[in-house]
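Researcher: Please translate sequence to structure tokens.
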Amino acid sequence: MCGIVGLLKRNVLLDPRSARDHVLKMASAIVHRGPDDSGAWVDAEAGIAMGHRRLSIVDLSPEGRQPMSSACGRYVIVFNGEVYNYEEIRRELDGLNAAPRWRGHSDTEVMLAAFGHWGLDAAVERFVGMFAFALWDREQRTLHLVRDRIGEKPLYCGWLGDVFLFGSELKALRAYPDWDGEINRDALTLLLRHNYIPAPYSIYKGVYKVLPGSIISIDAGSPPAYPVRPRRYWSVLKVAESGAANPASGGEAAVCDHLEDLLARSVRLQMVADVPVGAFLSGGIDSSLIVALMQAQSSRAVRTFTIGFTEKSYDEAEHAMAVARHLGTDHTELYLTPKDAMDVIPRLPLLYDEPFSDSSQIP
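Model: Translation complete:
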């Protein structure tokens, strides 16, 4: 998990120092998303500034720092998430003689090279992962905000007068010095009906969630538009319709083998990291399946973790321990009393992007 922030001022020459201070202040508001490093980038003439908080997972060296510029000089990115198939894309670029002279081994650098070769839309369609990123195109003087297919990584944006703001969380936008957010009363009715505020709305008027599987493009010279209009690059409905039109064939055994191959590949790609990898294990079907696939593809015992409860009716630790013993994982358990749970559980939404409209409101 990382944090991204930024601002774009229409037809205004930024003061570099002030703009840098603004985005660093916005980024500091979400330091919990990226405690390992921070950075800022400003193009005063274009009116754009972007900031980043980093949780280092792939390429821990300075070559993995953000904001990051492309080797061709056209693009600058701040990125939250991970593109799991970046090594495959890197090999493809190498095979096409379209790769730059690689500086490091981060997925961010590969993404920038992909944009330079295929363009934004064609590159994003190749990405397998969870991500939210802001891409500044120096040539077109356009800011692109992109969110992954399912919307696993959060991204908010909106106009504040002639300033376009974006960030991983609402608290980042609120840290902008001239912030004057107005509560969206229509969103309050959605909150009362659904117990959360559905996309694309937020609790603030004029501030929106970037929809999953979509791209928002803001031209530096265009006037503010309300609401900000996205374009979709992926649709779950189209995927479902395609699946219905092309049903699986080959019999039950073949289908099961294909599903297992897909699951194993997905888990394998998500185990790529330059830091230790572990998993939460509840003893239920889904977490047990994931850990089993992890252990089957690991040369050492996978580290697993379980939160147990002293109240037996809520406790799943016994089941998790049984799975851990069977799989041979390096297992750790933490037991909570009911009072501990009351203190800890209200803070758990801080780990999630949905359905909570604004995690900063959680005590």
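Researcher: Any highlights?
Model: The longest helix spans residues 252-270.
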